[in-house]
Design the sequence.
């Protein structure tokens, strides 16, 4: 079935540093890919998505490109802020397309 | 503003107790989901429902049941709580029948401790 693997955390950065969080997937066909974010004490919320190969999703300065050649959907941001401190989850639909499968999450901590 | 509300943020229960976790959404969404979130394991799907009185098992349904009597409400039931069910429980909803392109909206979570 479909699965997703994302880099282990925690990731600790200084403000204005460049961020990359790696995500690779295994899937039948070319499903949509998602990044969700969970801020402290809150539920998850959609950060960005891409629905087909070579699509780039973007939001709040974050970007991720759907690359079918490398089966990857890495999350990037050019200059992180303290307010970006959160847990980030890569996700894709299960093989039946009935629910989302989430990666284990990567904790990002940004200090000023 | 869209909203998924989980009735209890924190619960402490004893082994063997019956536990109800309630979730209500105000977006008239068709689909509702229960996940549990554990450190190092991420989110794992327990049950989901795509219509009233319908339910489907997720990846880890053992020890849980669900109820969806009304479209807006999806309850997770632990018939006899055990310590390995200590976890954060997240409820979510989505409009699309298949969430391939739709967005999941999450509640803030219910942290359950079973002693």
Sequence:
């Amino acid at each position: 079935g479909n699965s997703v693997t994302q880099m282990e955390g925690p990731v600790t950065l200084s403000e204005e540093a460049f961020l990359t969080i790696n995500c690779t997937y295994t899937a039948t066909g070319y499903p949509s890919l998602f990044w969700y974010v969970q801020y402290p004490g809150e539920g998850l919320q959609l950060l960005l998505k891409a629905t087909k190969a070579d699509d780039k999703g973007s939001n709040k300065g974050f970007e991720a490109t759907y690359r079918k050649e490398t089966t990857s959907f890495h999350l990037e941001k050019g200059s992180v802020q303290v307010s970006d401190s959160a847990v980030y989850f890569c996700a894709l639909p299960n093989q039946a397309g009935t629910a989302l499968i989430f990666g284990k999450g990567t904790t990002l901590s940004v200090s000023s | 503003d869209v909203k998924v509300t989980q009735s209890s943020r924190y619960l402490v229960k004893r082994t063997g107790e019956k536990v109800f976790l309630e979730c209500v959404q105000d977006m008239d969404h068709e689909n509702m989901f229960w996940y549990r979130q554990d450190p190092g394991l991420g989110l794992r799907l327990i049950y989901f429902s795509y219509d009233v009185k319908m339910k489907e098992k997720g990846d880890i349904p053992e020890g849980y049941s669900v109820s969806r009597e009304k479209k807006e409400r999806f309850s997770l039931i632990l018939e006899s709580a055990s310590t390995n069910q200590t976890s954060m429980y997240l409820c979510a909803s989505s409009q699309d029948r298949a969430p391939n392109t739709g967005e999941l909206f999450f509640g803030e979570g219910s942290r359950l401790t079973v002693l």
Remarks:
- Chain A touches chain B at residues 31-32, 36, 41-46, 49, 51, 89, 93-94, 97-105 (CB under 8 Å).
- Chain A has a mean pLDDT of 94.
